[in-house]
Amino acid sequence: MPSYGGQALIEGVLMRGQHAVAAAMRTPDGTIHLETEPLTGIYKSRWIKIPFLRGSLALWDAMGLGMRFLTRAANLQSPEEEQLKGKDIWLSVGIAMLIAVALFFAGPAGLAQLLDRFVPLPHIVSSLIEGVIRLAFVLGYIWAVGKMPDIARVFAYHGAEHKTINAYEDGAELTPDNVLRYSLEHPRCGTAFLLTLVIVSVILFTLLGPMSAGMRILTRIILIPVLAGIAYEYTRWTANHIDHPVVKFLIRPNLALQHLTTREPDRSMVEVAIAAFTKMREQESYYNNSSQLHP
After folding, report:
1. CB-based contacts of 43, cutoff 8 Å, min separation 6
2. Most distant CA pair in the chain: distance in Å?
3. Whether the Cβ atoms of residue 238 and residue 186 lie closer than 8 Å to each other
4. Is residue 198 within 8 Å of residue 108, measured between CB atoms?
5. What is the pLDDT of residue 295?
6. pLDDT per residue over 149-198, tens digit each?
7. Long-range Cβ contact pairs of 57-64 (< 8 A, separation 24 or more)
8. Do the Cβ atoms of 158 and 8 come closer than 8 Å?
9. Cα 159 to the chain's mean position, in Å?
10. How many Cβ atoms from other residues are within 10 Å of residue 198's Cβ?
11. Hey, where are the domains in the chain?
12. pTM of the model
């Protein structure tokens, strides 16, 4: 069975297949607005097939895809004079990325290095402490933003997306009543990537050995694409072997983390998720049939 991915939007859900993406967004008047587009560019290039490199490429392109539809979703909720432009969103994302790098990578490294000055520790212990600080920052950040009403609503749409895909993969009819009965957890959720990246960072940075404070912080920043590549391959491997008992055990922490990034959706949110998934499936069928007619 092909794997499907999703992403919560402002009052909407984005569903991605192998050939196309579809978004369903709730408008202020209560109707559901649908948009679709084929997946092109990096998704169809030979670079996306290269292990470790494809992780960073796919994440970067997925972020661009998400930002485009996030802008459209936000503009559906806003009056014309408050409409967002793509450059505004990208500026906000750029600032957010700089803050994230400082908070989740440079910050923990700096704190661990500062602790070493007062309490000299073996390198492996210092790296472990740095990893614990990084994990605490990630979990604390997700928990804190999840308390904001607007973000909590986005997390509920995330839950609707998970429930819809779970229902489909179980062979259930996609009705709101059926979908609402399914779990918020899904093994292919991108949240798993975050936890995996933190764990990989502990291992990789421990292997690098002791270094100066400046070099320690610099390596944490420049090696982010390497960490992303390794984490992506691991999450891809677990998704492809999800039925193995060992893999089921390994992904338990990832599934537990999803309770921070999802909320129980209401019926209207599930309706949006079903609309997005159904439209995406229609597009997938169209492109699959087209490829068979024109090999």
Report:
1. 58, 61
2. 70
3. no
4. no
5. 45
6. 989 999 999 999 999 999 999 999 999 999 999 999 988 887 888 888 88
7. 58/232, 59/228, 59/232, 62/7, 62/16, 63/93
8. yes
9. 13
10. 21
11. 5-293
12. 0.85
